[in-house]
Amino acid sequence: MVVVNKQTGKLEAVGKRAKEMLGKTPANVMVIKPMRDGVIADFEIAEKMLDFFIKMSTTNRGFLTRPKIVIGIPSGITQVEKRAVKDVALKTKTSEVYLIAQSVSAALGADLPISDPTGSMIVDIGGGTTDIAVISLNGIVFNHSTRIAGHEMDEAIIQYLKRKYNLLIGERSAERVKERIGSAYPLDEPMTMEIKGRDLREGIPKAVVIGDQEVREALDNIVSSIIDAIKYALERIPPELSADLIDCGIILTGGSALLKNLDKRISEETHLPVFITDDPLTTVVLGAGKMLDDLDLLKKISLT
Questions:
Q1: I need a surface site. Which of 22, 23, 128, 276 has the fewest CB within 10 A?
Q2: Which of 74, 80, 85, 81 is nearest to 140 (CA)?
């Protein structure tokens, strides 16, 4: 996310700080999401955001040369969308830009044996997309991407509270509800949370207390869609690799993989072991970083 001053066009905040300002900005500034569903929604702002991140990282490290950039992209995006990502990166002060599939980057970040003749299945559930891939011998044997992920979970919670309680809340509040009491499978101990928003009928502030079962009900269609996408992938991979998954299981990563008991629900419906990476929020980034240490592998698996 990026906060932009409408009058000057300058960036006021980027990333986490911008996210904290969502829904609280004065009239002269606005919060923009330059990336949506894993693709560029605002070309100009995406370029400014990327330029900000590059300057921040190179200044801190004292780099004088133009850096190489590795960008992870969803497997389901079009050639036009792919080109747009690369063009934005090339407009910043970079020497080379490599695009790689997010799923491959996630597999590297999770230390999976992607060079071995063994199938590894990784499911990257981010904010805008869920990327599913089976990887073997440094390549993607099968991949499937769906634009159903964390943002849709937040929207489902917003719509549920509108319908049931006539309560309007913002994206940040919905995300907090998801993180604190959201789940994909019944919890061992029931949880509740007070949610504050605006009463849609009277237009005044209002607070309600909801339980984890209600949030689970709100998220059920989204969770089911993600599981259906995983099953779709399992039905289409070669039988030899299917046999590998009985032992290796499914690896979950991405911020939305932290939804409570999501691994348990997927395991119950697929009858396969499911594991969550050590740090799902940064697995893709760590994998992209490892790519820069092995340029031969990077050139081999980069997307054109």
A1: 23
A2: 74
Write out the residue range of the structural domain in which residue 239 sits.
104-148+224-281
Among 21, 82, 85, 16, which Cα is nearest to 50's? 85
3-state secondary structure at position 123 = strand
Residue found by looking up tokens 């199938």 in the block: 119
Same domain, 197 and 142: no
Q: Looking at the structure, tell me whether residues 206 and 229 fall in a common domain.
A: no
Segment 87-119, tens digit of pLDDT: 888 888 788 899 998 888 999 999 998 888 888
Residues 198-221: pLDDT tens digits? 999 999 999 999 999 999 999 999
What tokens appear for 92 in the block? Answer: 């910043």
Instruction: Please tell me the total count of domains within the chain.
Output: 2
Q: What pTM was computed for the model?
A: 0.88
Residues 240, 142 within the same domain = yes
Q: Is residue 172 part of a domain?
A: yes
Residues 162 and 270 in one domain: no
Buried b (16+ CB within 10 A) or exposed e, 184-195: bbeeeeeeebeb
Rounded Cα distance, 111 and 94, in Å:
28
Q: What CATH number does residue 213 fall under?
A: 3.90.640.10
